[in-house]
Amino acid sequence: MDITNRTVFIAGATSGIGLELARRFAAAGSAVIVGGRRTDLLAAIAAEGFATVPIDVTDAGSIARARDAILSRHPGLDTIVTMSGVMLLEDLRDPAHFGAAQETIATNLLGTIRVIDAFTPHLIERGAGTIVTVSSGIGFLPFPVMPTYAASKAGVHAYSEALRAQLDGTGVEVSELVPPAVATLPEYEQRNPRALKLAEFATEVMDLLQANPTPPEILVKGVLMHRWAERDGTYDELVAQRSQALAMLPSRQ
Predict the structure, then answer these.
(1) For labeling, which of 8, 85, 178, 239 is most exposed (least CB within 10 Å)?
(2) Is 188 a catalytic residue?
(3) Cα(26)–Cα(18) distance, rounded to whole angstroms?
(4) Residue 183's pLDDT is what?
(5) Considering 149, 159, 188, 235, which one is annotated as catalytic?
């Protein structure tokens, strides 16, 4: 992907990985539209010079309004990044977890599908473009305290594979970004010393995105142990290690 002259919409880019990638695309010369729910954060991002649009990926009407606003102002839009996501702890022994499960699926999986559906006709009509979905290393190596998050990201992976196959021949490519743990805030790094620093992660991602053709999966080195755990025979051991985190659930302390 040539990252120097794209027109990129990133849904869910008001903080963290999404905002850092927005800044990297812009620094490379691309026009970037940042989407998110929090109008206060969008205002601050607009002050940096970004185009912004409010969007709630759990609301079909909000997505339609965002799409119409973006395409009216940026008819050359050629890149969609579906970054929106939530990470919620769940204790599956307590039926009250179901609300968290619903919110997670509505945002991470159905939100991804809704955003893609909104812009796919435009990209197909152009005959060229890129859709970047965002799954997670947890989709390949579950973190038991976040079971529905893992399921939602595994779903994004499978959906990305099917989407790529269905769009073959249209000129629209599909690439799946698979982040490991990334320290998007200083306190995250304190909680998980193994988390990648945000700047280092973003640099590696942008380097990988510039390959031609764009790789079907964007895999930084730090996520390879997750992505290939089953192949490498380390899956059971790693899941057992991660299961120790169940002790952090309030009901088990």
Answers:
(1) 239
(2) no
(3) 12
(4) 86
(5) 149
